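The data are quoted verbatim for reference:
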Amino acid sequence: MKIKGRLHRITDINSFVVSFLKTGGKPVAGFVNFGKAKIHVATDAPLNAFSGSFIPNMIYKADANAAGDFSVEVPDGFKSFRGRLIAYESSLVNVNLPGIPSLEVLAPLYRSAPFALDKVTGAAQKIYVYSSTTPDDQGIPASEISKEAAKLKKSLKLDKVTAAIGSNAIKCTAEKSGAEIKFEIHVKPSTSDDLAELVRLSVEEIDIDLPGPDWITGLCHSKGDIEKQVRGGVKDLTANVNLQIKDEIDKAAPGVSALATITITKVRYPVTSTTIIKVPGVGNQAFPVRSVVVDPTIGVPIGLYA
C-alpha cells in the first residue's frame, strides 16, 4: 500500500484559519507547498504497540520532493496494524572535523494520530504545518525549574538539590545520605504517538560519588539503585513540564490544541536576564540566567484517513 500526500507550509495563519473553517477543512488560501522534507510512517508492528516493546517497530521512510509531495510504501501484509505519519525538516550541520562529513539533523514538524492501515486509500493526504518561534521571555524560567527541583527533592527524599539551566541542559546537583549526585536533564522534542507528550526529559551525564571507600559504602548504598531513583523521579516530572508547555501554547493561541496536533520542533536555552552574586574575595559578579524555551509547530489534520 502507498501512503501518499503533500506537505504544505502555512504562511498566513489568519487567512488560512478563515479558509479552513469556511471550506470545512479544505483551505484554498494562506499556504504554499512546503518543499523537501523527510517523511516517516511508524507502525505498531510487530507487537501492536508503538512504544514500550523490546522489539523495534517497523518504520518506512520516503523523501518529500520540492513540491512537498511524498509516497511511502508500506507492505500490504501490515493492514492489520496501525500507522502514524511523522514529518521532519532536514538540515546539515558542519562538525568542523577533518574527514568528517556534515551531520543531518531532523527537526520534527508534524505527528498524526494513529490510524488503521486497512483504512489507507489511494487519496493523497494534505497536511498543513505552521511553525512559530516562542519569545524568549515566554519560556520556562529558572524559578519554575527550581520549583520542579523542589518536587524532585521531596519525591526522592533528597537532603538537598539544586538545578541551574545551562546552555544545552538543566544541570543538577543533589545530596542524599552523604552521597553527591550530579546529572543533566536534557529536554528533547517528543515524536511519541501520545500527542499530549510534547517533550521528554532524559537524564544524562550522571555521576554518583559515595562517601568513603566503595567496599564499605556499597554495603549501605547502591549506585544502581540511586541512579534508578533519579531517573524515575525525573520521568515523573515530564507530565508537569508538558502541562506547562501546553498551557503556554493555549494562552498564545486559544483552542489550538483541540483543532491541531502540536509538535515541538526545537528546544532552546536562551539567556533572559542576569543576576548579581557576591563572591567572597572577588566582589559582585554578574551571572546569566537562562530559560527553557520550546518552538512549536502546529499541524492539521490531527487524523489521516478519517
